[in-house]
Amino acid sequence: MFPIRDHNPSERTPYVVYALIAANAIAFLLQLPYTGSEQAMLGFWRDWAMIPAAVTQGGEVHGIFTSMFLHAGVMHLAGNMLFLWIFGDNMEDQLGHLGFLIFYLAGGVAAALAHIASAPDSVVPTVGASGAIGAVLGGYLLLFPKARVDILIIFVVFFRVFTIPAFVMLGLWFAMQIFSGVSTPADGGGVAYWAHAGGFIAGIAFALPVWLRRGARAYWQKTEGHPPHPETRYSTSNIPIIRRRRK
């Protein structure tokens, strides 16, 4: 299940999203010279990745920040940037440029701390923007639960695009992280599921003040969970009339 776009146009240019994508891409290019040697690559991860044991035992906290911009391969980078591209612009639209940058970085830190808590003695390097992007997804779910998202389903030779509400897609994503986190050793190699889940929960918490300022449940009732853009007109009965515009 891959999201390919959402039906949720933003009103401001997402400069921070562009900058974050560029920063991740540049960081990936900078690590490429080390990929020819396993020893060199391990040294690079040791210096810049987030290693739970190094944080809990040695206080080397810089990796919590630098690891957010590192990726283990092209597909790892592409997948994370796709999610950031689809969902990040709307969060930047709602939080403002500086507010979104702080939100993103704080979400990444919270995700890293969640992973450390799940495996404090692990010496396996952790890299990726997935935790910070998990925060973006959590915030998006709170503010736009019924925004429409196009997802691509691939099953062997069958593939098809479906449009589903954001709360279905993001709820399934979060459930998969929890299930995988419970069933997978946290100190092993592979995917840091608890970082994803921790970032998601942090994103909801960080976006909560915005949701509360807008009326909390009354905000949902007014918009029926759809994006509150000028393209959306509301009748006196609060039934939204959506005029579609491609992103």
Order of helices and strands: EHHHHHHHEEHHHEE
Bin the strand percentage: 5-15%
Coarse shape:
globular
The largest sheet, given as strand count, sense and whether it forms a barrel, is: 3 strands, antiparallel
Computed over alpha carbons, the radius of gyration is 19 Å
Helix vs. strand class? mainly alpha
Helical content band: 55-70%
Report how far the terminal alpha carbons are from each other.
Answer: 20 Å
Q: Note the total helix count.
A: 10
Lateral strand order in the biggest sheet: 1-2-3
| Total beta strand runs | 5
Unreliably modeled segments: 230-247
Overall pLDDT level: 86
Question: Short summary of the structure?
Answer:
It is built from ten helices and five strands, in the order βαααααααββαααββ. By secondary structure, it is mostly helical.
Question: What this model shows, in words?
Answer:
A hairpin with a 5-residue loop joins strand 4 (232-234) and strand 5 (240-242). With 247 residues, this protein is mainly alpha-helical. Helix 6 (97-118) crosses helix 7 (130-143) and helix 7 (130-143) runs parallel beside helix 9 (193-213). The chain is globular, with a radius of gyration of 19 Å. Residues 230-247 have low confidence and may be disordered. 58% of the residues lie in helices and 11% in strands. Strands 1-2-3 form a 3-stranded antiparallel β-sheet.
